[in-house]
Amino acid sequence: MEMYIDPHIHLVSRTTDDYEAMRKAGIVATIEPAFWLGQPRTEVGSFKDYFSTLVGWERFRASQFGIVHYCTMGLNSKEANNIALAEQVMELLPLYVGKEGVVAIGEIGYDDQTEAEDKFYRLQLELAKEVSLPVLIHTPHRDKKRGTTRSMDVAEEHGMDPGWVVVDHNNEETVKEVLDRGFWAAFTIYPHTKMGSERMVEIVKQYGPERIIVNSAADWGISDPLAVPKTANLMRKMGIPEEHVRLTTYQNALTVFGLSGQMHEDDWLKAPPIDQTKKLGGNSVLRGGQLPRVEGPADRVEN
Ligand SMILES: [Zn+2]
């Protein structure tokens, strides 16, 4: 069976049905970038608990459905505009960037391209260099072309190696410059929009698979946690070579986020069997007498 990585998905807002469907579709590993929650946070403690969830409960919850969970740590650009709070978050971040399963600093960058966003983006690029982690850049949805160019200019200004930087949410207008400058170009598949699977297929046809990464960025909005396997299947149907499918929906993400030293293929190839009798902090994914799923060693062989 094919294996996929979804390197950008906000799992705290997804259900256990999603986890089951994702694993069934071949997703073996996921990366959950720290981001905003729709509702702006007003206290630094809210960030602390969220970061703890990303490295704690959510990682455990994913494991209960046979998916290895990683995350990125960072202060998102929207909330960077609350300067007093952002400064407190910057003090908190060093406590989390070294935790198990943290594969990058992100998602950081620009939203409205304000001065405050610029300040905290730069500070976090310096943090990434300090702790030798790759960077995941969120590019703005408004004025995207200019924001994408600026994100790369500033990353270079801070001496970041483009080979350690993933520029996310690309489209046809931005991809060429991102690839030409040596950065990784990630694409978010938004269902019912212009940037759907069909357009992704065209981009891979045109640019090839090198440094191109597909993700779902599924969150609490209208989004599809199966966008990566669905796009892979469409690529096959449209005649894209299997090796190109493998690179863009699996291997490229592993290569760049593996630079963290925190993500290895053996993490899922040699994962312990699913055991839903396990608990974290006394808490389980089971409710009201549900039967736990417990895999025997033999159940894993077929994967
Ligand atoms: Zn995101």
TrEMBL record:
Entries under InterPro entries matching the protein: Metal_Hydrolase, TatD-like, UCP005295
Pfam families according to UniProt: TatD_DNase (PF01026)
Bilayer-crossing regions: none
Metal-binding keyword on record: yes
Region (Disordered): 274-303
Keywords: Hydrolase, Metal-binding
A single GO molecular function term of this UniProt record: metal ion binding
Entry keyword Transmembrane helix: no
Similarity section: Belongs to the metallo-dependent hydrolases superfamily.
The protein's name in its UniProt record: TatD DNase family protein
